[in-house]
Amino acid sequence: MATDQDIENGSANMLQPFIQKNEKLQTSNQNGSLFMVFLSTFVAIMGSFEFGSSNGFTSPTQQAIMEEFGLSFSQFSVFGSILTIGAMAGAITSGRAADLLGRKGTMRMSSVICTAGWLTIYLAQGPLFLDFGRFLTGYAIGVHSYVVPIFIAEITPTHLRGALLTVHQVFIATGLLVSYIIGALVTWRTLALTGMIPCAIMIIGLNFIPESPRWLAMVGYRNEFHDALQMLRGDNADVSEEEAEIQESLAILQHLPKATVMDLFLNRNLRLVIIGVGLMVFQQFCGYNGIVFYSNQIFTSAGVPPNVGSILYACLQIIVLALGALIIDKAGRRPLLMVSAGGMLLGSLLTGTSFYLKEHDIASDLAPVFTLIGIMIDMGSYCLGLGGIPWIVMSEIFPLHIKGIAGSLVTLASWGGSWVISYSFNFLMAWSSYGAFSLFATFCALAIVFVFKLVPETKGRTLEEIQASMN
C-alpha cells in the first residue's frame, strides 16, 4: 500500500501505468459506435445554447426594456450584470451538486431553474421581478458552465474530446446568434419565452442518455459504471482496458482523504488551481463579455448599425469555433490559446484606435471600419482559443476527488470576472472608450505570457494520463 508521503509526492511507481499506456485503448474506442456519445453531447450542449442565449438577451432588448420600465443606464447595468451574480452562486454550488446528484441530475436541476427564470422575466411587471428572473437564469447557466464540459470530457473518447468540448463553445455562440436574430424580430417578452425551448429539450433528452461512467465509478455503482461505459462505446466495443484504467485511477485516489477547500492549496494541487483560475481570469479580463452585453451600444457609438454588427460577429464566432473544433486535437491547446490572445490583442488595439480617431475627429470616416474590423478580430480570436479552451483544460486537469471543489472555484473565478467586466463596462466606456480597450489589450498580452509559462499541453491523452503527468 502506498504511504501518505508517496501520495503527496505523486509516487512515480503509482503514476507510471497511466503515463505509459499504449494505443490499444484508443483503437478499441474507435472500433465501437459513437452514436450515444454524440447524442449525449447534443443533449448536454443544450445547456451551452442556454448559456449563449442568456448572455445575448440584453443586447437586442436594452432599449425596449429601458423604455417600458423607465430604467437608467445604471439600472440596466444592474439587470445585465445580475446574470453573473446568479452565475457566481451557481458556480459555488455546481461542483458539490455534480458530485452529489450526478452530472445528469445536476443538468436536470439547472434546466428547471432556468425555465423558472425565463418565465419570471416574461411575466415581470417591474424591475424587481425582472432582476429576479435574470438571477435565476444566471444561477442555471453558472451550473451549466461547469457541469456541461465536465460531463462531455468524462464520456468522450480521447481522440474526440477536444473537438466535442469545442462544440460546447460553438453552441454558446449559436445561442448568442439566435438571441440576436430573434431579438431583432420579436418583443423582449417573446424572446424570453424562446429561452425555455433548450431547457425543455435538455430535460426530455436526459431520459435517453447514460450517466457519466467516471461519476458512477466514483460513487461505487460498479454495474451501472460498466453498463454506461459500454453504452457510450457501443455494444461491440471492448471497454475492458478503459474500465481498468478508470478503476486504477480511482483506487489511487481512494487513498486520499475527502477533499476540502484547503486541499486545493497543497503542493500537488496548487499549480492546477493557478492554471485553471488564471485562464478564467484572462478569459474575462480580455473584455469579451463587455462587448457581448453591450454590443449594440458599442456599434452605435462608433457609427455602425447595431443589428448588422451584432449578427455579423455572432456568425463569425460560429465559423471560427467550427474551425477550432476541427483542428484543436491536432494543433493542441497551448498554440491555439496563444494565437487567440494575440488576435484579441490586435482586435482590442484596432477598436481602441477607432474610438480615439472618433473622439479627436481624426479620419472619422475610418472609425466605423476600424471598429467593425477590430470587433470581428477580437470575437473571432476569442472563439478560437480563450473562449472554449479554458473550460476544456479545467475539465481535463483536475483529479476526480477534487474536481467538484476545484471546478466550482474555477467557474466562480470565470463568472466573478464576467460580473466585474459586465458591470464596469459602461463606466469604463464613459471614462475613456479607447482607454477601456487599451486595458483589455494589456490583459491579452499578459495572457500570452501566462500560457507560455504555465499551461500544459493535454491533447491526445486520457484524463487519467493528464492528471498523473501533472503530478
TrEMBL record:
Keywords per UniProt: Membrane, Sugar transport, Transmembrane, Transmembrane helix, Transport
Subcellular location: Membrane
Chief localisation class: membrane
Protein family: Belongs to the major facilitator superfamily. Sugar transporter (TC 2.A.1.1) family.
GO terms for cellular component: membrane
Protein name (Swiss-Prot/TrEMBL): Sugar/inositol transporter
Record-linked NCBIfam families: SP
UniProt xrefs under InterPro entries: MFS_dom, MFS_ERD6/Tret1-like, MFS_sugar_transport-like, MFS_trans_sf, MFS_Trehalose_Transporter, Sugar/inositol_transpt, Sugar_transporter_CS
Residues that span the membrane, as ranges: 34-53, 73-93, 105-124, 136-155, 162-182, 188-209, 272-291, 311-328, 335-357, 369-393, 405-425, 431-452
Limits of the Major facilitator superfamily (MFS) profile domain: 40-459
Pfam family, one: Sugar_tr
GO molecular function, one term: sugar transmembrane transporter activity
Membrane-protein topology: Multi-pass membrane protein
Gene3D superfamilies xrefs: MFS general substrate transporter like domains (1.20.1250.20)
